Structures are given as C-alpha cells and as structure tokens.
Amino acid sequence: MVPVSFAFPFCGDEFVLTKSRALFWPRENALLVADLHLEKASFFARHGQLLPPYDSRETLERLAEAIRETGARRVYTLGDNFHDSHGSQTLGDHETGMLAALTRATDWVWITGNHDPSMEAKSGGTIAVELEVAGMVLRHMAKRGETRPELSGHFHPRVQVKIHHRHIRRPCAVVSHNGPDATGAICGRMILPAFGSLTGGMDAADPAILKAMQPASAIDAFVPAGKRLARFPLWRSAA
C-alpha cells in the first residue's frame, strides 16, 4: 500500500497522492489518473518531429504498478487519455495487450478530454464526458464557478521551490478550499498532476489555474516529498 503519510482529507473523505502522480480514493477503492497522453510520441512522429517511441509503454507500466501498489479495483482517467482521438489505433501490439489486461482487471472508465473528445475504447473500459461518483464530480477541466466537490486534470500543474540555491520543479496536485460542507469538513476542488511520461507542466500558481479554481478561499499545492506530503500555499482570498 502507499504510505499513510501521503493521505490527506478532502471534502469529508480521505485521498492518497502517490509518488507516481496518481490519486487513490480508499473508500471507493479507486485510482484516478489525469492526462496520460498515450501515443504522444507517435503523434509527433506523424508530424515530422521524432521522439523516443516508448512513452506509452512507460506510462502503462507505471499505471500498472500504481494499481498493484494501491490494490485499486476501479480506475477513472480524467481526460487526454490519448494525445489525439485516434491514438488507440496507433498503439503497438505489446502496449495494446498491456492496456487490455488493465481494463479487464479493473472497472475502468475513460473520461474524455480536449485532446481525445471522440476516442474509442478499443482496449476495453467505458467512456464518459464527465461523471459524478459518491458526490464527487469527475471531469477533464475544472469548471469555473463549480461549487460541488470536483476532481479534474488538464493543466499539468507543477510547483517550483528553491532548496539550497537550487530550483526544483515537481508535478503537484492543486487543491482549492471554498468553505465547509454539510458535515463541517473543508471542501473544494482538486486538479491532479499529469500522469503521462511525455507531459510538460504549468506553474501551479499560473493565473489560468487560479481562475479556473474560483470560487475559493484558499488554493494550495500538494507534493509527495520524502516520507511526507508537502503543502505549499498558492493563493489566499483577501476577504
């Protein structure tokens, strides 16, 4: 199992952010990942830019390990699963077999994103534009003005910190707080880090991210660091 120290409360529930950039939801026994961008290298190759063609295999291997590590029986992917809607057609035989094995072993749901709005589940699983699970809205891109608990991806957030005169950038989750829920627990929304191997990143404090997470009273970045989950404030309401 993933380290307990990476667990944190969110909207009256407990979630665990893994070092591999997946989010585990123990109560639902579910693993959530965002922005796999499978077949990104082959997409660029078709457009004349050659990249090492191993990104899909590496991403799927890490995803398989995250499923084993957490024991998850359900998987939700939060959009941009493939770098384009036809990515499932360019997967190699080995990668297709890996993906088919994962979708057979779990209750798998693909949520589509802006890169793959018309993707087909050729290797198993079911497809949704967005979904609500146990009161939590799952979608690709954070919806400004959303007041329900929400999990999303899209922005590939990264936080930069300075340690011993070195600037270190790490993928992170961005969590907003917009007040207590019916039980009194702090509730808000969360943007997951990008899981894919060939995914860049946006500054977690970028105005586009902060704007997408409104309304909020506070916004923080969460990063697995050593044996604990580090928290970095990004924005606070002036009110």
UniProtKB/TrEMBL annotation:
Its EC number is 3.1.-.-. GO terms for molecular function: endonuclease activity; hydrolase activity; ligase activity. Signal peptide: none annotated. It comes from the Bacteria. Residues 31-121 form the Calcineurin-like phosphoesterase domain. Keywords: Endonuclease, Hydrolase, Ligase, Nuclease. InterPro entries: Calcineurin-like_PHP, Metallo-depent_PP-like, PdeM-like, Pesterase_MJ0037-like. The keyword Transferase does not apply. Pfam families: Metallophos (PF00149). This is Ligase-associated DNA damage response endonuclease PdeM. It comes from Aurantiacibacter rhizosphaerae. The lineage of its organism: Bacteria, Pseudomonadati, Pseudomonadota, Alphaproteobacteria, Sphingomonadales.
